[in-house]
Amino acid sequence: MPYAIRKIASYEETLFIEGGKAAEKPVRLIGVAAVITNPWHGRGFVEDLTPEIHAHAPGLGELLTREIVTRIGSGDAVEAYGKAAIVGTAGEIEHASGFIHTLRFGNHFREAVGAKSYLSFTNKRGGPGSSIQIPMMHKHDEGMRSHYLTIEMHVPDAPAPDEIVVALGAATGGRVHPRIGNRYLDTQAIEAEKAARR
Questions:
Q1: What DSSP element (H or E) covers 28?
Q2: How many beta carbons lie within 10 A of that of residue 77, not counting itself?
Q3: What is the pLDDT of residue 196?
Q4: How far apart are CA 145 and CA 181, in angstroms?
Q5: What is the residue range of 122's domain?
Q6: CA-based Rg of the chain, rounded to a whole angstrom?
Q7: Residue 134 and residue 83 in contact, taking contact as beta carbons nearer than 8 Å
Q8: Phi, psi angle pair for 121, to nearest 5°
Q9: How many domains does the chain have?
Q10: pLDDT score, position 192
């Protein structure tokens, strides 16, 4: 089946108040998704997905990165980021995974925002209007729980059975009033508790 981009969809929200308390700085969350034809649809079980991944994932990563960075203003404005893919009901989850789990796709986003962290992700199968949940983390530090965010969006008519929806998410900050510490504090506390029991 020939590869094509049917449409680009986006979602944006700006958070001003959380828990009844105003944010010191509003946080913008943006999701951008491409609806593409599944190049493996109708071909039965395809053992080697590499040719299609190499042919299409780099361009798709470049396009979605350009779209999301344009909407958020600049790569420097991004503090948290993530990715997601949903394959239609006639495809395999591996088909969705193939587009997002390659450096040929993700490196465009990482480089554009100057990131060090890996891109957190979801990949699943679903029908038109399925929830696209894009988990995010701090672009430099996976242990900063303040930036564990999820942006949710959907495309009402996608994915069709022979399509894949591929999405990127970005945020200009972490949660508005983070109060649960980070992984490093937990590690230190657990180690201190172990030492005290020795």
A1: strand 21-37
A2: 16
A3: 85
A4: 7
A5: 5-197
A6: 19
A7: yes
A8: -155, 165
A9: 1
A10: 83
Supply the pLDDT for residue 122. 98
d(CA 55, CA 102): 12
User: For the chain, how many helices (H) and strands (E)?
Assistant: 4, 7
Please name which of 130, 149, 102 lies closest in space to residue 35, comparing C-alpha atoms: 130
Helix (H, G, I), strand (E, B), or coil: what is residue 20?
A: coil
Tokens of 29: 């969350």
First to last CA, the chain: 63
Find, among 3, 9, 13, 5, the residue nearest to 168 by Cα: 9
Q: DSSP string spanning 47-97?
A: S--HHHHHHHHHHHHHHHHHHHHHHHS-GGG--EEEEEEEE-TTS-HHHHH
Residues 6+ apart with CB under 8 A from 143: 182, 183, 184
Looking at residue 1, what is its pLDDT?
Answer: 67
- What was the pLDDT predicted at 144? 93
Looking at residue 146, which CATH number applies to its domain?
3.30.1330.110
Query: Which amino acid belongs to residue 190?
Result: I
* Residue 69 to residue 170: CA distance in whole angstroms: 9
Q: Classify residue 156 by its DSSP letter.
A: T
Residue among 113, 110, 91 at smallest CA distance from 102:
110
Distance CA 13, CA 10 (A): 11
